[in-house]
Every structure is written in C-alpha cells, then in structure tokens.
Amino acid sequence: MKNLLVLLFTLFTITSFAQDKRKWKQLFNGKNLKGWTVKISGHELNDNYGNTFRVEDGKLVVSYDQYTAFNNQFGHIFYKTPYSYYLLAVEYRFVGEQVAGGPGWAYKNSGIMLHCQPPSTMLKDQDFPISIEDQLLGGDSTGERTTCNLCTPGTNVEMDGKLFTPHCINSRSKTFRNEEWVRAEVLVLGDSVIKQIVNGDTVLVYQKPQIGGGAVNNYDPALKKDGQLLKSGYISLQSESHPVEFRKVEIIDLEKQYRKKRK
Length: 263
What we know:
Elements: H1 2-21, E1 25-26, E2 36-40, E3 53-56, E4 59-62, E5 75-79, E6 85-94, E7 109-116, E8 132-137, E9 149-151, E10 155-159, E11 162-164, E12 168-169, E13 182-189, E14 193-198, E15 201-211, E16 234-239, E17 244-253, H2 255-262
Antiparallel strand pairs: 1-17, 2-5, 3-4, 4-17, 5-16, 6-13, 6-17, 7-8, 7-16, 8-9, 9-12, 10-11, 10-15, 13-14, 14-15
C-alpha cells in the first residue's frame, strides 16, 4: 500500500509538472505521415491498403472510402520512437459512417495503443499489436458511452493491487456525442502506473502493465511472454472500421524528469 501511495504521489507531481510546462513535441506534423509506420492485418508492413491512413486539411485521417468491405482489416499506425515515461495527448473525433462489414462493437471505436510491440514483429495476419489500449469511443445524440476505457490485447494490468484479466473495463468519463472534438491524455510511467485523462478529467488509473491474456490473434508466440512487465514500447493509433480524425498528436517525454525524482 505504501509503495502504491508513493507511485500515485509521483504520478500526480509529474502530471502537474508536465501540464504546467507544456513542452509538447508534435508527433504528427500536419503535413504528411513522416515518422509513422503502417501495419494493417492481412497486409505487409508499410502497405497502407486503401490509403487508410492519410493527411487531409492538416489532420491525420482514418478513411475507408476505398474499401468495399472491412473484412477484419484492423490497422495501426506506429510512431517511429518507443517511449517509456511520457504524457501523450491526442485530439480526435469520429466522422461519417462505419464501413460495410465492420463489427458492431467497432462503431465509433478507435484507440491509442501503448507499450506496443515493434511493428516489424507483427505477423502479416495479426489483428492487434500486443499492447495496452486507451480505447476511444464516440456516442450518438442519445444513450451513454464512455471513452478512454481500458482494453488489453495480449496483456493484463493490476487494479487495486490485484491482477485484472477481463479484456476491457469502462472509464468514468462522460459521453462525447456526434462529431465533437475530444482531448485524450495518457500519463505512462514505465511498468508502474498509467493514468488516462479526458478533457482534463482523470477517468481511469491502473498499474503494472504486462503481457498476458488473449484478445490478440495470429501473433508470433515467441513474443508473448506472459507475466513480463511492459516497461516501454511503441505508440500507435487504430483503424477499426469507423472513420476518425486526429488533429493533434503530441508528447512530453518524462524519462529524465521521472528518473530524477526517483533518485
């Protein structure tokens, strides 16, 4: 319990430091996909099938206008650099209609994938990277649907000091409707704590991200070392059959700041 309190205090102070200083590095330059790598299930690395990931009007866009059907072609676009301790922010919104053949659960559904395996290690037909997902969801004019939920493709986490093995858990966010822009931030402190934030409101906190569980298919079994803590990894954004736009993807690297506080 004492160690958890120390971690949470550290998390609070680092979040405050990062948000006060606002020394954001832009991962998406608003002009092209330089620095990003595409991997779509059923296709080889860097085959951006159907021009799924593209830049339009200064936004990183996920589009399906060249698809006839989705056919479980789940995709991810990875930033070139792995990170361990950082504050990441994206500003996103869902637009348009879901492509034909997209699963019902993927309606207005995307995600920020954290601590991802390297994209070069994903097999051709693998659907999701082994990673921790900050799940992004959108609502309609009625009904409730939280965003920045937690999902765990090939992973588990701890919550309240216990191993959490269900694939997903909802956050306590409000519902964001129609084509409203949402700012999602996530504070990642290596293999200790992850904190998910929506428009400045903390909606979910969990600890000790690690390999384990299911919900990932057609992966290289040599890479799935269950129980291994995830200390670092790549960041990716999803294509899951519903068009989505990202107008900002930015990061504050906290590696030096965190390690200085730990000394």
